Amino acid sequence: MSLSKTNYIANRKLLFVILLLFTSNAFACDICGCFMGITPYYNRNSISVLYRYRSFSGYEGQSHSLFPNGGKFFIPARSQDLPITGHDGNPNDYELYRSMEIRGKYFINSKLEVNAILPYVSNSERYNGYTATIGGIGDVNLYAGYHLIQKFDENFKQQLIAGAGIKLPTGKNDFKNTAGIRYSSLMQGGTGSTDGFVYLNYLVGLGKFGASLNTSYKINGKNKREESIANSTTSFLNIFYTQSIGKDMQVMPSVQFFYEYSGGEKYNGVKTGEHVMNNLMGGIGADIFYKNIALNAGIQKNIWEAETDHPMSAGKVYVGITYNF
């Protein structure tokens, strides 16, 4: 494999680190946005498994905001405890959103790709001494991207992808506790609504260094209960360095910044003022490539957040593996 092709293969993988995974968990993850999958090889079909974890526990008194007291990082068994809604600043309160996703990508031709994401979600909340966890299939995402720019010289590379997609209401939206009371909209496995989104991904690379800037806008529908989320936007900046190890392995460390905004929940088309999201996160990531296999991991912590009624965003973690064919 030529040096230029080798460098390109490494750089290409970060290009798709955004989109927005609107799959994830019900309303909460729609509010916080997300990040797209990882597709490291140019014009290669792929199948991936990705685990994502998001924590809201920004109260003083927690031993660790990202991994709060009593919170489970991996998907736990469903809990039947009865939650009491309404945070009052209790330092033990938290919200956790987890998603294990199967992702597929297929190139119809050299410039047009189609993608699908099937998630299994697990959401937990602790309010004033009560803990509840639900789990189930989440909302499926289908989307397509078109490669508008493809320039791959030996030392300079750039690529621009524009795309659009749809989120289908496949996740359960009526989880109830043992008393028959429906959990809050934030806790549900799916939003119950059909949503659409558009996105742009731009990648530029100079030698071993590069950056990707990804931005997206989501148009949210409402479910049969007249619940919805205000339209949201996310942007993801990734600055990376490529290092080859032998002929078949490459390591790509990165610095990441993620901004998200949503006007929060709506009922009957009117904003309620609840669960507004407006925050910036930053962190680091590492991607390892060996032949057709890619291992990906990253962690981001909250840098800045506007004052809202929602528990402070603590951060997020992701771990994934991709097979390209």
Structure description:
- The chain has helices at 3-12, 27-32; strands at 46-56, 94-107, 112-127, 130-137, 141-152, 156-167, 195-206, 209-219, 227-229, 232-241, 243-245, 249-262, 265-267, 270-271, 277-290, 293-305, 313-324.
- It has 325 residues and is mainly beta.
- Strand 7 and strand 8 (209-219) form a beta hairpin.
- The radius of gyration is 20 Å and the shape is globular.
- The strands form 2 sheets. It has a 12-stranded antiparallel barrel with strand order 1-2-3-5-6-7-8-10-12-15-16-17.
- The two termini are 17 Å apart.
- 5% of the residues lie in helices and 52% in strands.
- It has one domain (3-76, 89-324): Autotransporter beta-domain (Lipocalin, Beta Barrel), CATH 2.40.128.
Q: Indicate the radius of gyration in whole angstroms.
A: 20 Å
Give a count of the beta strands, DSSP E runs of length 2 or more: 17
CATH class descriptor name: Mainly Beta
Largest sheet features: 12 strands, antiparallel, barrel
Strand content: over 45%
Distance between the termini: 17 Å
Overall SS class: mainly beta
CATH domain topology: Lipocalin
Domain tally = 1
Residue stretches low in confidence (pLDDT < 50, at least 5 long) are: 1-41
CATH superfamily: Autotransporter beta-domain
Order of helices and strands: HHEEEEEEEEEEEEEEEEE
Oligomer status: single chain
Fraction of residues in helix: under 10%
Helix tally? 2
CATH architecture: Beta Barrel
Tertiary shape: globular
| Averaged pLDDT | 80
**Strands in their spatial order, largest beta sheet:** 1-2-3-5-6-7-8-10-12-15-16-17
